[in-house]
């Protein structure tokens, strides 16, 4: 069994604590290593508001300035600490990566909003080989040490790819990816081709576009399963993390089980 990468959405703000801890414990008992990548959007937004900084979102990505970057890093460090402490309270052995040391960032001309150029996997592999769960904050540094804000979904997708993960699970505050959000038409099983078509048709809101692109990146680069589920639903989180083939009726809280073939 390969690594399971779990991306914990910042919008959940502690509401997924029990579900995540339970799923991680189940995986570790089975001898399946787990890596956790977290977001921090709401906490970043609050720190920026308190500092009087307003940043626009472009295609779902926060346009981060040099002035804002220290606030972004502080918020992510705070999120990382809270998640580490939460998992430790549940008896999960953890190690924090909160200083941008895992993701190699690259400048793409959007000030301090960067993209993933690579992943430093040695420290992550060392942590999981010792039985611990790495908890990774989603920002990175370039070769010169400059820090860049990285979309957490994209970071998780690249980390899963670099580790050769068997499964990538996105935990969010909605029950998955909708074919039509207004009609509550939830995708249960889909394909890369269907997601790409829906992207072209503009089916997804701006906030969902980065997540869908992250899903596609993962399944196109060797990750065998990607799930998007409501992180507050303990049973859905368990089913996604364990990769179960169980199915409930359409309209349940089990969100999207997305399978892809490596391109």
From TrEMBL:
Domain Aspartate/glutamate/uridylate kinase: 3-230
Annotated pathway: Amino-acid biosynthesis; L-arginine biosynthesis; N(2)-acetyl-L-ornithine from L-glutamate: step 2/4
Lineage: superkingdom: Bacteria
Single GO MF descriptor: acetylglutamate kinase activity
Keywords: Amino-acid biosynthesis, Arginine biosynthesis, ATP-binding, Kinase, Nucleotide-binding, Transferase
Assigned EC number: 2.7.2.8
Leading EC class: transferase
Reactions listed under catalytic activity: N-acetyl-L-glutamate + ATP = N-acetyl-L-glutamyl 5-phosphate + ADP
Pfam families named among the record's database cross-references: AA_kinase (PF00696)
Name of this protein: acetylglutamate kinase
Source lineage: Bacteria, Bacillati, Bacillota, Bacilli, Bacillales
Gene: argB
């Amino acid at each position: 069994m390969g690594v399971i990468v779990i991306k914990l959405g910042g919008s959940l703000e502690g509401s997924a604590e029990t579900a995540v801890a339970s799923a991680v414990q189940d995986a570790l008992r089975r001898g399946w290593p787990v890596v956790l990548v977290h977001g921090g959007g709401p906490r970043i937004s609050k720190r920026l508001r308190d500092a009087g900084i307003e940043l626009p979102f472009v295609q779902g990505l926060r346009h981060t300035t040099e002035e804002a970057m220290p606030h972004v890093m502080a918020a992510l460090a705070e999120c990382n600490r809270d998640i580490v402490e939460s998992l430790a309270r549940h008896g999960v052995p953890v190690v924090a990566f909160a200083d941008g040391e895992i993701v190699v960032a690259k400048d793409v001309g959007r000030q301090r909003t960067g993209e993933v150029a690579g992943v430093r996997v040695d420290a992550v592999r060392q942590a999981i080989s010792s039985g611990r769960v790495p908890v990774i904050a989603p920002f990175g540094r370039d070769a010169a040490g400059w820090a860049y804000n990285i979309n957490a979904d994209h970071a998780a997708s690249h980390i899963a790819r670099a580790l050769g993960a068997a499964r990538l699970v996105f935990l969010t505050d909605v029950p998955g990816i909708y074919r039509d959000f207004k009609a509550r038409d939830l995708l249960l099983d889909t394909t890369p081709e269907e997601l790409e078509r829906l992207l072209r048709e503009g089916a997804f809101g701006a906030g969902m576009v980065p997540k869908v692109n992250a899903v596609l990146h993962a399944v196109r680069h060797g990750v065998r399963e990607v799930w998007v589920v409501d992180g507050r639903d303990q049973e859905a989180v368990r089913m996604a993390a364990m990769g179960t083939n169980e199915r409930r009726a359409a309209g349940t809280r089990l969100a999207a089980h997305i399978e892809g073939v490596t391109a």
